[in-house]
Specification:
The complex is a heterodimer of chains A (109) and B (114). By secondary structure, chain A is mainly β. Helices cover 0% and strands 53% of the residues of chain A. Chain A has a five-stranded antiparallel β-sheet, with no helix packed on it. In chain A, a hairpin with a 6-residue loop joins strand 4 and strand 5. The radius of gyration of chain B is 13 Å and the shape is globular. Helix content of chain B is 0%, strand content 57%. Chain B has no helices and eleven strands. In chain B, strands 2, 4, 5, 6, 9, 10 and 11 form a seven-stranded mixed β-sheet that branches. In chain B, strands 1-3-8-7 form a four-stranded antiparallel β-sheet, with no helix packed on it. In chain B, a hairpin with a 2-residue loop joins strand 5 and strand 6. The interface between A and B is medium-sized, with 22 and 19 residues.
């Protein structure tokens, strides 16, 4: 079966760094997306990894290890507006996105 | 630039009533179109996707249906709503045959069935 595992909720302090982990099991693999979703809003694209390694984009970085079925999203210099849910979504062999329930990130002052 | 809009944003409907959610995309041709549902605290559930006019694939058997009467129009419907149909419905599009497959979402429609 296809499965996505992410922590349900995480708490971090403004200005700090947080790493959100994701492990996945899919039928085939064609890359992995991270999306950000603020409460009551639609998800917005953050990153896409198709090869192993780290992709950096400003304060956000995403890492992928295909052999381990593992990815993480690293958020630096946390701001209050980063409070949101973060969704890990791998692409399976049919290019269908498999969505996890997401990790709710709470930022405290 | 490409834009996607869906409406209505919020609706409250009684059990057994019909439903129609509409989604339109501008600025692109022949997009892949999707309807997702997100229940509270749950992941996105793919309901329908379409690769062209009149071509609808259903992922989950239920009392919902989808139609694509025009290239950039996608409609989600139900003849009789159930309580379990409550949720946050999201329309999305992607560039066809592109490996990145990034999804661009509409604003979402929050449905409450009473």
């Amino acid at each position: 079966g296809q499965n996505i595992d992410q922590p349900t909720e995480m708490t971090a302090t403004e200005g700090a760094i947080v790493q959100i982990n994701c492990t996945y099991q899919t039928s085939g693999f064609n890359g992995l997306f991270w999306y950000q979703q603020h409460a009551g809003e639609a998800p917005t694209f953050l990153s896409y990894n198709v090869l192993d390694g780290l992709e950096e984009k400003g304060r956000f970085s995403s890492f992928l290890s295909r052999s381990k079925g593992y990815s993480y999203l690293l958020l630096k210099e946390l701001q209050m507006k980063d409070s949101a849910s973060y969704l890990c979504a791998p692409f399976d062999s049919n290019y269908q996105l498999i969505w996890g329930a997401g990790t709710k990130l709470i930022i405290k002052p | 630039s490409q834009t996607i809009h869906q409406w209505p944003a919020t609706l409250v409907q009684p059990v057994g009533s019909p439903l129609s959610l509409e989604c339109t995309v501008e600025g692109t041709s022949n997009p892949n179109l999707y309807w997702y549902r997100q229940a509270a605290g749950r992941g996105l559930q793919l309901l329908f996707y379409s690769v062209g006019i009149g071509q609808i694939s259903s992922e989950v058997p239920q009392n919902l249906s989808a139609s694509r009467p025009q290239d950039r129009q996608f409609i989600l419907s139900s003849k009789k709503l159930l309580l379990s149909d409550s949720g946050f419905y999201l329309c999305a599009w992607s560039v066809p045959r592109e490996d990145t497959g990034e999804l661009f979402f509409g604003e979402g429609s929050r449905l409450t069935v009473l």
